[in-house]
Every structure is written in C-alpha cells, then in structure tokens.
C-alpha cells in the first residue's frame, strides 16, 4: 500500500499498466516479484497491489551481508548474482521497459546459489515514458539524471547497474574516494557535485583527483579491485570514465552478462580456501590475495571460433556456443566431468550433435556425440569449424 503522498494518479496509472502488461522479462520472470493485482483501499485515499510473498529464509538483503549479520557468500556467488541481474535487466530492456531505481536495496539474493529476486518493481515504466517522479537512489543515479538534463531510461539504468556491480564485486562505491572522504555532509549540493557535476572514478587512469584514501573503510576496495580479472576491470574503466558522461559509451547489459559468464569460467579456489581468478590476459598470474602463495591452477581450455575464449578445466563446467563467439544463443556443446578411473584428468563429454576429431601428438580419435575424452595438455579437438585446445 502506498502512503497518501505517494498514491498519485500517475502512480495509479503505472500500477494498472504493469499489472495489465504482465512481466515483460520473458527469459527470467521467476526472478521478479511482479505486481499481480491492483488493490483500492476502501477509504478511497490510497491504493496498492498484490505481489508474491518472498521466502526470506532463502533470500537475504545486501544490508544483511554488509552489516555481517549474514556471512559474505563469496566471490563465486556474487558473480552469479551479478550475471543474473545483468540478464534480468537485459530482458526488461528488450521488453521496452526501464527499471529507474537500480540499487543494492531493490533485490534480494540467495547466499547459497547466487539466485536473485528483484523486489521493488513498481518503479518500472515503458522506456522514455515521461511519467512519475522516481529518479532512483542518489548514489546510483546517472550524472545526467542528477543534473536534471535527462529522465531515467534504459541508458541511465546501465550506469546504475555498473555502480551496483562495483558494490557487489569490490565492496564499495566507484566514486567514493578522496572527494567523498573530504565531504563533511552528503547533502543535495555535495551529492550533485560528487555524482553529477564532477564525478571521477577512484581508479581513473588519467584523472587522479579522486584516489582511494589509504585508510580503513576504503583500503579493502583496492584489494578487491586487484582480484578482478582484467576484462572486468576494463569494463568498469569504460563505464566510469567515458561512460560516465557519454551515455552511448556505457557498458551494455549483454556485455556485462557475457563478461560475467566468462569470469565464472576463470574462478578457482586456492589450496588455502580463498577464491581467485585465473587471468588469460596476464602473462604473470598474481599470487593468492589471501595466502600470498602462487596459486596452482588446473589446465586451461581455449575455445577458438569467431573469437577465442579461455576457461579453466574444472569438473562441472560447460563449453557452450557462446565460448566460440556465437551470439545467437546459449547451447551447451560439451560438459567437463570427473574421471572416475583416474582423478588426475577431467573428461569432456561431447554434448553436440557432431563427431569431434581429436588429436594428441600423433594419436587421432573420433569423439562421437555423448562420448567423452580426457582433457590432457596438448589435446586439440576439431568441433566442426571450431577448435578446442588444452594447455597446461
Ligand atoms: Zn591462497
């Protein structure tokens, strides 16, 4: 139910249209607690809507994680949550809608699986429809909305999404450095300056005016930033340098989704138990961020098609058409499995419809659909026009 001030005729119109339209996110409707029915309060002064009850035993808020009431679920889970959020936004945007208020308050997550539930859906409107007063949560809002030169839209959503991902992966705000540290009161005037007039990324390679202070409350952000693979850091750099003021240069939801899917392929747990990411763009891998020792990574599988993508050989991971740069949709091509006879190798099962031609030195073998082959370094698999190569 809305309080009387918020129960405006415009909001009434929005709720009616969202209930009538149904959830536009066709690929992941179960991740939205969508508005199901409009409800008029009997006194006629206010109204509201029915939505599904969220199981708060399974889903927790970011506030619960940040206050340490719930143990931090770990990087792997956070990456999965980000990937799902990118997918949900993508679906909403394709449906012609914008969310307007992306922030860490408007979704819940399952700390065991990374599954997300987007809760506050009454801010959603048809993209660029000039209705309602919702501008979003100040620290997540795009500069042009803060400055009142644009209304919330799918492109301003992209800025908020990048801010949210930075929170989830680095544990801080991308613009909270020296400038925010020196701000005595974060009021309307100082917020306008920090997020609208003069926003500077804390890791901006050219503009060093807003570096992270080397003190408690900021230091962990620099540490977490270094754990991120280079391709993810590059997306943040794009989002918070050129993308800050040029909306057309923002990182799109599909770019995030693909990059986060790739990040999952690089995830590896060090012998000490800390989560690290192997980085195909680095010649020299960083030591474990936790124990400072060299991380022993498993062999790597390179998928060569329209593009080249690398992943770690770990049982349970899948090779899909996306790994070959095929953007037409996700189809599993192969699945990595434990080798029950010899634990030192991981097997790759052919999940495609074509026979693979495998070569290892001077040995050759056909891998028919549903058969598997051990992924040993030096192995080359011809899968139609694509190739799979295993490196140590
Ligand atoms: Zn370690």
Outline the structure in words:
The protein has eleven helices and 18 strands. It is α+β, with helices and mostly antiparallel strands and 392 residues long. The chain has two domains: 206 residues, Transferase(Phosphotransferase) domain 1 (Transferase(Phosphotransferase), domain 1), CATH 1.10.510; 93 residues, Tumour Suppressor Smad4. The chain has a six-stranded antiparallel sheet with strand order 10-9-18-17-14-15, with no helix packed on it. Strands 11-12-13-16 form a four-stranded antiparallel sheet, with no helix packed on it. Helix 3 runs antiparallel to helix 5 and helix 3 runs antiparallel to helix 11. It binds zinc ion. Zinc ion (ZN) binds next to loops.
CATH fold group of the largest domain: Transferase(Phosphotransferase), domain 1
Mean pLDDT: 94
Strand order within the widest sheet? 10-9-18-17-14-15
CATH class of the largest domain: Mainly Alpha
Low-confidence segments = none
Structural class: alpha+beta
Beta-strand content bin = 15-25%
Helical run tally: 11
Shape: globular
- Number of structural domains: 2
Radius of gyration: 23 Å
In helices, the fraction of residues equals 25-40%
Largest sheet: 6 strands, antiparallel
Tally of DSSP β-strands: 18
First-last Cα distance: 59 Å
Provide the CATH architecture of the largest domain: Orthogonal Bundle
CATH H-level homologous superfamily name of the largest domain? Transferase(Phosphotransferase) domain 1
What ligand molecules are bound, each kind once? zinc ion
SSE order: HEEHHEEEEHHHHHHHHEEEEEEEEEEEE
């Amino acid at each position: 139910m809305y309080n009387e001030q918020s129960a405006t005729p415009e909001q009434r119109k929005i709720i009616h249209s969202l209930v009538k339209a149904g959830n536009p996110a066709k690929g992941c409707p179960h991740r939205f607690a969508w508005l199901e029915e409009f409800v008029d309060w009997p006194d006629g002064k206010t109204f509201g809507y029915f939505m599904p009850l969220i199981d708060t035993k399974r889903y927790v808020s970011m506030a619960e994680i940040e206050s340490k009431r719930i143990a931090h679920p770990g990087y792997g889970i956070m990456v999965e949550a980000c990937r799902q959020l990118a997918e949900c936004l993508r679906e909403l945007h394709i449906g012609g809608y914008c969310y307007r208020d992306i922030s860490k308050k408007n979704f819940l997550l399952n700390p065991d699986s990374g599954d997300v539930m987007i809760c506050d859906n009454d801010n959603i409107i048809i993209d660029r429809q000039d209705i309602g007063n919702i501008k979003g949560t100040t620290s997540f809002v795009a500069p042009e909305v803060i400055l009142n030169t644009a209304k919330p839209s799918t492109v301003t959503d992209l800025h908020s999404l990048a801010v949210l991902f930075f929170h989830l992966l680095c544990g801080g705000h991308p613009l909270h450095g020296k400038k925010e540290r020196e701000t005595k009161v974060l009021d309307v005037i100082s917020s306008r300056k920090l997020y609208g007039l003069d926003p500077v990324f804390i890791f901006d390679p050219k503009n060093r005016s807003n570096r992270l202070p080397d003190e408690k409350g900021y230091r962990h952000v620099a540490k977490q930033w270094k754990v991120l693979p280079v391709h993810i850091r590059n997306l943040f750099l794009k989002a918070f340098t050129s993308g800050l003021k040029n909306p057309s240069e923002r990182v799109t939801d599909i770019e995030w989704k693909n990059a986060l899917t790739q990040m999952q392929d690089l995830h590896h747990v060090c012998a000490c138990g800390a989560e690290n990411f192997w980085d195909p763009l680095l010649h020299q891998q960083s030591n474990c961020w936790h124990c400072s020792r060299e991380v022993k990574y498993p062999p790597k599988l390179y998928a060569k098609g329209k593009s080249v993508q690398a992943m770690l050989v770990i049982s349970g991971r899948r090779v899909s058409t996306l790994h070959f740069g095929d953007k037409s949709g996700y189809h599993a091509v192969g699945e990595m499995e434990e080798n029950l006879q010899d634990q030192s190798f991981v097997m790759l099962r052919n999940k495609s419809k074509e026979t693979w031609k495998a070569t290892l030195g001077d040995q050759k073998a056909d891998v028919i659909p549903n058969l598997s082959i051990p992924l040993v370094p030096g192995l080359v698999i011809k899968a139609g026009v694509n190739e799979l190569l295993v490196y140590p």
